[in-house]
Amino acid sequence: MSVALTSTAVPTSTRSDKVRVMVVDDSVVIRGMISRWIGAEPDMEVVASLRTGLDAVNQLERINPDVAVLDIEMPDLDGISALPQLLAKKRELVIIMASTLTRRNAEISLKALSLGASDYIPKPESTREATAAETFRHDLIQKIRHLGAKARRSTVHTAVSPPLAPGHDKPRMGLPPAAAPVQVARRSFGLLQPKVLLIGSSTGGPQALMTLVAEIGPVIDRVPVLITQHMPPTFTTILAEHLARTSKRPAHEGIDGESIKPGRIYLAPGGRHMRIARHGIDATIALDDGPPVNFCKPAVDPMFTSAIDVWQGSIMSVILTGMGSDGMRGGKDIVAAGGSVIAQDEASSVVWGMPGAAVNAGICAAVLPLNQIASKLVRVFAGDRS
Q1: pLDDT tens column, 218-246
Q2: For strand 366-368 and strand 340-344, is the pairing parallel, antiparallel, or unpaired?
Q3: Among residues 84, 107, 326, which one has the least CA distance to residue 199?
Q4: At a CB cut-off of 8 Å and minimum separation 6, what does 87 contact?
Q5: Beta strands, E only, 13-109
Q6: Pairing relation of β-strands 225-229 and 265-267?
Q7: Which of 126, 57, 45 is nearest to 95 (CA)?
Q8: 325 carries an active-site annotation
Q9: Per annotation, catalytic residue among 326, 340, 345, 348
Q10: What's the rounded Cα separation, in Å, for the pair 48 and 21?
Q11: What residues does 275 pair with on adjacent strands?
Q12: Which residue among the candidates 230, 242, 325, 340 is catalytic per the annotation?
């Protein structure tokens, strides 16, 4: 399926405010292809095309990019080894890890996120396959655009801000300055006791999910937890294993037809939508190989909307950091059925696209920093609807 590249508005830019991109990959074909794509965008430019991580580390200060697209497997110095050295030289650098879809590279990409990489992107097995290359192009350009623009805003703010007062924490890398809270309408929490927790996330989601599942043990023990994270195959397999270790609860990719039970975490497998269906008295997983929704597969909206047929208004949903607006339409349906939506706030989100869309749609009962969502969920599932 062809993916339209005009799904989001492209800002006009002068040369001085274009996002500066450094492409680091030992394949001359990949470097050339990515450079052409970036060069065709009015709001970004390639400032260096390098073959190894060592070249990137040695030339970083001279090049001064906003974003680095960093391959994992390279001679001299590979991507995972170059990552901490690059961030040591430029703390606010946005690093997008690029790798082919192997289990080893998926593990390395998730490790890179824990070491400070902003995001990852899977490279297609063959750039000659039109759909795969077009999807790669769309995803890469959107990640560079959103993460790079945010990094530039953060850099400008840091340059003009006075030193922090003693006792104040430093702002998180790559996040925008704290702003006065936006006054948005809040809905009351649903009156029905939730029977399930649904979570949707994208860019920044793996880190956010680890933080969240580590602290919601009492919720997991009470109800099933279903998660859709925008991720390709193999990556979701690894993520499920990480979620199991972090939560100390069973977690795995959803299997078509399996019964959904409390005490378990079910993750949508990469490349398939995870819906919920009823089979007799049981709620079951229904995997869907249909077209992408909101340019994503898996997508959050199919999971959210299908859950209503099973649990009606007894649904608690959470929309975490991510680009786009996936989850907003499904969240509207959940609220209309009597359920509730919690969104991550802007300051703690890597990208405030998905949660921001839900907030702006007026469907949220709470908008909270990541570190407050777990405690709120524990209280809500214990009966506190305030």
Answers
A1: 999 999 999 999 999 999 999 999 999 99
A2: parallel
A3: 326
A4: 93, 95, 115, 116
A5: 19-24, 44-50, 67-71, 94-100
A6: parallel
A7: 57
A8: no
A9: 326
A10: 7
A11: 286
A12: 230
CA-to-CA dists, residue 88 to 2, 37, 61, 91, 154, angstroms: 39, 29, 11, 6, 17
- Helices 103-114 and 235-247 cross at an angle (nearest 10°) of 50
Question: How confident is residue 151, by pLDDT bands cut at 50, 70 and 90?
Answer: confident
Token reading at 244:
């199991």
Q: Which two tokens stand for residue 370?
A: 């990541």
Amino acid in position 231: M
The tokens for 224 are 């099933």
The pLDDT of residue 101 is: 83
**Neighbour-count burial of 170, counting CB atoms closer than 10 A to its CB (0-12 exposed, 13-18 middle, 19+ buried):** exposed
Q: What is the reported pTM? A: 0.87
Catalytic: 7? no
Catalytic residue at 66? no
Angle, alpha carbons 374-246-224 (nearest 5°): 60
Least confident interval from 79-83, 114-118, 125-129, 297-301: 125-129
Per DSSP, 363 falls in state -
Give the DSSP H/E element, type plus range, for residue 280: none
| Band of residue 287 on the pLDDT scale cut at 50, 70, 90 | very high
In DSSP terms, 278 is beta-bridged to: 283
Minimal CA–CA distance to 56: which of 34, 27, 25, 30? 25
Beta bridge partners of 341: 317
